[in-house]
Each structure stands twice: as C-alpha cells, then as structure tokens.
C-alpha cells in the first residue's frame, strides 16, 4: 500500500469511528429505554393480575401468596453476544420446581447485528463505512423483538416452533401466563 492509500485509509478510519460511535449511541439509547420499559410492562401486567410488586435496581418481582415471578437483567451498558440485552425470568410456583427462562432482546433481522469488513484496505474501509451509514439510516425503522428460551436448555426452544418471537415483553408475559410452564 502506498503512502497516498495509507493517508486515505487513515481519513476513512476517522469517518468509520465517528459513524460507529453514533450508531453505538443510538443502540445504547434504545437498550436503556427498552430495559426500563420492560420492567414497567412487567409491573403493569402483574399488578393488573393482583400480584404485589417489589422493585430493585435491575430486577422486579411479582408475588401472589406463595407464588413469585422475577424478571431481571444485567447492566445494560455491558456488551452481550448475539443479543442487545438478556433478561432472566424466574418462576417459583407453589407446586413443582422453579423454572427459568431467558428472554433475549434481538434485532428481528438476526444477520443484521453482525458483519465483518476488511478495514485494512481502502475498499474494505469504504464498505464498512457504507454498512454503518445503511444501519444509521434504517435504525429507526429496525424492529427489535423478544426471543424466549428456557435457560436450563439454551438450545431447546420453549414450544416446538423454530423460534418463539414476541414484539413486546407484555406479549412474552401473556404467553407464559397462559401456558403450562
């Protein structure tokens, strides 16, 4: 690579870093909003069913007599693999054993979350920049959904479908409320 190409690559890297930072801020803002909204949705859903609600930092619990359900998540500023934010939903029934489910906040287009570019060449860097621009331009139209899985068997889906995908946390809770868990 000649000096002219190296200079152009250095300029493009600055642009790529700026775009990546802007996309990261948009993603983090949405994660923070949805994390809070999920806990609020849990509160409203179970309160309307007659449960008593207790809240802690990233956890909320609904209790009805000797029965409890807890929803929690990790630090939303932390990076996770293949999900924007994982939630853990623990169900402690009066009879039977405790069950645990994972609810993953994911992009409805799974392949959209990950892409690799060769940033060591001018053309690779241009492709990376275009990819970031495309993600920034379509970000507000991109839907995130909730994927429900049993935590004890992460590769086993909850019900015999290929995926259990829900548009909101309330839809996940409604599904679990009406299913044998």
Which terms summarize this structure?
181 residues; alpha+beta; seven-stranded antiparallel sheet; 3 helices; 7 strands; 40% helix; elongated
Entry summary:
The chain has 181 residues and is an alpha+beta fold. The protein is built from 3 helices and 7 strands, in the order H-E-E-E-E-E-H-E-E-H.
Task: Please provide a written account of the structure.
The chain is of the alpha+beta class. 40% of the residues lie in helices and 24% in strands. The chain has three helices and seven strands. The chain has helices spanning 3-48, 122-138, 169-178; strands at 52-56, 59-64, 67-73, 85-92, 99-107, 144-150, 165-166. The protein has a seven-stranded antiparallel sheet with strand order 1-2-3-4-5-6-7. A hairpin with a 2-residue loop joins strand 1 (52-56) and strand 2. Helix 1 (3-48) packs parallel to helix 2 (122-138) and helix 1 packs across helix 3. The radius of gyration is 21 Å and the shape is elongated. It starts with a helix and ends with a helix. The relative contact order is 0.15. Residues 153-162 have low confidence and may be disordered.
